[in-house]
């Protein structure tokens, strides 16, 4: 067995020791005589798994008691509808458009009320985060929405927008648990887990209790009501049980690694190796303005599409997988989530240097 | 490692060889150098997994070409809303109420149009399937809805209802792939996979193409539109990738076992061992009228709640797990899905005989 370096934007690399544990427990979890996949979600063994997962996540993120943690299905995309359906009491919400995912969320919200784009970086292919210090926030806005880390474009909000007192809702799919976060600044933090946290099929929603009400838009399906899931501790119906179990293992791994403060240091160190090289390379260059660079997703280009394709191909042959940029932007993208070891980035940079030497005349 | 006999109603027992393969492939699927959990859903390796899964399911169920197979999230419960949101063009649908799950689906549909209960077996605690040969089907009914196998009550439709030409929609969550089925008799067949097919977090929807249209109810979230998923071959957003992979392995296992005809024989033989014993036991008795008995879920009682509790406790100590009946009916329930070996049922009956000898004065 040989493992590759997997730079996929998601689903993405997971900690090797988590996978090893999962393999070892596959036929018999902890003396129960069954796989976690086979367990009734109402059994004692499973209750302990989901409760421990929640507790460890609360510890890691320091989640205040007045926030609920929900483990749901449908991916981040389903939240694009759940958020307006549950939160648009005044039917007004303000969106900051920093990439495709924010835009999709915005378009979905327009089905349900007056969703307004109050800022955008589309003018420069989403290569920066707009100034959000003094936006024209609607007095009636039920919330202000951001995609905190833009997976495709490689930007990240380093400062949260000034919402002028309105509830902040953030999609953190691609920066989940990558650094400490002050949960109290948000009304809702959510993300699909398939980048930094676990296997696709689980979305985690951290939501302030006062935002969880019976008062949802007409026609909101039962399964799309936060209150149903909150009242039932994510067990209203059968949850994505195995995925939650893997997330729980990743939470334990993060605690062992020193928690989110340590992860941030680790991620900064890792990202610097790549960004520093990009900044002095004569062949490659990053596509994002320096101050808004993501620690997780690093897009770069040579400026020559053929050379980009050659690089991706040769990198793959050398064991660096999934370096092709998103189909909407081209070039390359290295996603270097929590579970990507420093060694992976070091070796990638070595490979890039070699490629540069061979391809710069 | 010792495996128990797991009679859980779902999530439920899976074939041991499927679990062994999954464990062996956990860190390196088929030479890719990564776990299926870590794979981009747009990668070649994953495309092959999902396409092969679909093909094998089509083979097993002999699904006609004019039906789409969708792998979705949200569980069966989310279908309770998706069905009316997508199919209620006239805003009328007729429901046959044979248990809690049918009732929940019915209640959800009432949010979206005129959902009518055209038959029910609630008068006798859902212990039988009502006569559905000549129901008062609405001329405008967009569909007639059944829960084909009632997990909680242990009944199964042995004859499909006469829908008077209207589209039949069936929840087959707890009888999925347990016997051959004539797909062409249905408009939609769907089920959560967590009983007979795979880990919780995947729902499979088999739907006739003409029912997949743009014309959904106002406010239907993008993620709840069949058309979006059909047009994108279940890859509109990140699918529950690992769960689909396990389902694919179960499909291969079913083919190796001889397909659904062989499974039916196997399941009939297995169920007969338990039902025959129940019919001659002086202590235990089944709760369902004989002609409507499920092959999958077998509820039974002693008639004495304390004795029921004693039985469940002693059975658990002897390695027979999850025999407690659903909280809404009490007593016992043995779910004996495809992956439950005959040996499990034989040993359970031996244990019941011993218990009967000890407890009948
Ligand atoms: C930031 C962000 N939001 C939302 C999504 C969509 O997630 P899902 O595929 O789980 O719906 C993605 C997926 O890549 C993402 O990167
Ligand atoms: C027949 C039937 N339908 C629907 C459901 C609900 O499924 P889910 O938990 O996936 O929403 C169940 C669950 O046990 C079931 O047995
Ligand atoms: Mg983006
Ligand atoms: Mg450069
Ligand atoms: Mg039922
Ligand atoms: Mg009897």
UniProtKB/TrEMBL annotation, chains A, B:
The modification N6-(pyridoxal phosphate)lysine is found at residue 195. Keywords: Amino-acid biosynthesis, Aminotransferase, Cytoplasm, Pyridoxal phosphate, Serine biosynthesis, Transferase. Coiled coil: none annotated. One of its GO terms (cellular component) is cytoplasm. Its EC number is 2.6.1.52. It is an enzyme of class 2 (transferase). L-glutamate binds at residue 42. It comes from the Bacteria. It catalyses: 4-(phosphooxy)-L-threonine + 2-oxoglutarate = (R)-3-hydroxy-2-oxo-4-phosphooxybutanoate + L-glutamate; O-phospho-L-serine + 2-oxoglutarate = 3-phosphooxypyruvate + L-glutamate. It is found in: Cytoplasm. Pyridoxal 5'-phosphate binds at residues 76-77, 101, 151, 171, 194, 237-238. The keyword Amino-acid biosynthesis applies. Pathway: Amino-acid biosynthesis; L-serine biosynthesis; L-serine from 3-phospho-D-glycerate: step 2/3. GO terms for molecular function: O-phospho-L-serine:2-oxoglutarate aminotransferase activity; pyridoxal phosphate binding. InterPro entries: Aminotrans_V_dom (IPR000192), Pser_aminoTfrase (IPR022278), PyrdxlP-dep_Trfase (IPR015424), PyrdxlP-dep_Trfase_major (IPR015421), PyrdxlP-dep_Trfase_small (IPR015422). Belongs to the class-V pyridoxal-phosphate-dependent aminotransferase family. SerC subfamily. Homodimer. Catalyzes the reversible conversion of 3-phosphohydroxypyruvate to phosphoserine and of 3-hydroxy-2-oxo-4-phosphonooxybutanoate to phosphohydroxythreonine. This is Phosphoserine aminotransferase. It comes from Anaerosporobacter mobilis DSM 15930.
